[in-house]
Amino acid sequence: MSGLRWITLSRALAQILTWANTFFVIRLISPTDFGLAALAGIFANFLSLLNELGFSVALVQKQTRDEETLRHVFGALLLIGSLLTAGLELAAPLVGVLVKDPRVVPLIRLIAVQFLAMSFAVIPQARLAMDMRFKELSVVQVSAALLGAAATLAVALNGGGAWSLIVGSVCLSVTRAILLNFFYPPVGMPRLQLAKIRPFARFSSLVLLERSLWYWYMQIDSFVVGRVLGAAQLGIYAVGRQLTNIPLERAMEIINSVALPAFSQVKSDLDQVRRGYLTVLRLGAGYAFPAFWGLAIVAEPLVRLVIGVKWIAAVPVIQLLCISMPLRMLNSFTGAAVTAVGRQDVNIKSLLLAIVVVPACVMVGSRWGVSGVAAAWAIGFPLVYLFNAALVQRALRIPIREMFAAVWPAALAAAVMSAATQIMTVSYLDSLPPLTHLAVAIPFAVAVFLATLWFGSRASALEMFHFAHGIMSNKR
Q: Is 317 a residue whose pLDDT tops 90?
């Protein structure tokens, strides 16, 4: 609770500022520019996962604090970072051929610079997480995000187009590495003996496999849209997906930064891990279902108000993606709990199914444009979630009825909220200006959700209230 309080409160103001910056930048650049930046980032972001060799998770899970071991880990990180930087610089033209757009080549070459910076960030971040120093981690994340946003805005205002997004990303990575090393100085001169890092090999390789599968099943839609439909359509799809992902990414950034260190400290007590997972599942459902289904209802006035009419084609993308987003958020809670108890096979098995089901649906859906691709998630992901829930049920020994009981009150209340708000929208709100529409619809939806949850499951409503009070309170 102390960690969550620091992370939540310290980031609240920063998130408001960065969201405002993001929306303003989207107004300044074209769908094609946004699409080019998304294409350039697909392969570079994947390599950034390989860059850390899974050590960011392995060090925390194993609670590794030995300085000598950390120096050898640092040496491995620097070696891989250097190789990836040089490799991507040379391979950039090949990526341009693969995505059928040579304009991404110079963008990719700039992105490659961040790999070396990221090599310096892994160990201090892991050490701060192990020490539960979430105040310092919050300061780092917020400061880096704000400086990255400022760089993005400055370049966009000067007509930088796609370059603005790439410059901002690189600035964020470099700033984050510098600040992490300020709070936790380097471990000394790097060394590299394979024998010293061999104890991490199995766990880290599983982390890398898990993250690789996760990344490509999450990014295959962007790759298909960019290659089949072009950069402009990818820009529309990417903006719709980014707006939809805001509630997910911000919540998971807060929760996962605390969840893995917390679960790792009690990993020997499966009962405590199980109770913690069910608590996170209940609270996550209470946030995810109303947030995403509510976003679907107000997507059109929100887009008109925040990023402008030129992006109105992103509205159906947002609405269709929001259907499955609550399940995607609940599914992401699995990672920290099963990783902490050494059951990464659960994540890997789930991702193996996802990387078959979701891309297959996306390929079929692409025949109907970006809306068809967004609909693919609504059709394919519920199957992935049910499979993953069955795996978690066995790994953590949680009766499936308890997992269902944790989720259904919030889902039912959100469904009632969505229906009531939609009726009000069609009957009255559609005739109002976007700002007035939102000013009426959002409080109405919140009131309907809370009232329905209160009458449907008072225990769930009280748990959400006490959790919110705990985050805001100074009591430990």
A: yes
Distance CA 428, CA 408 (A): 30
Q: Can you give the pTM of this predicted structure?
A: 0.73
166-170 long-range contacts, Cβ below 8 Å, gap at least 24? 166/37, 166/40, 166/41, 166/107, 166/110, 166/111, 167/110, 169/41, 169/111, 169/114, 170/110, 170/111, 170/113, 170/114
* Burial degree of 90 (CB within 10 A; 0-12, 13-18, 19+): exposed
Distance, in Å, from the CA atom of 218 to the CA atom of 214, rounded to the nearest integer, reads 6
Q: Give the range among 10-14, 57-61, 151-155, 307-311 with minimum mean pLDDT.
A: 10-14
Taking only the tens place, the pLDDT of each residue in 17-53 is 667 777 788 888 888 888 888 888 887 777 777 766 6
Are 209 and 346 in contact, with CB atoms under 8 Å apart? no
Q: In whole angstroms, give the CA distance from residue 49 to residue 218.
A: 13
Q: How much is the average pLDDT of 453-459?
A: 87
> Residue 444: CB partners within 8 Å, gap ≥ 6?
420, 421, 424
- Range 281-294 average pLDDT: 90
The torsion region of residue 369 among left (phi > 0), alpha (psi -120 to 50) and beta comes to left
In three-state secondary structure terms, 99 is coil
Distance CA 122, CA 64 (A): 13
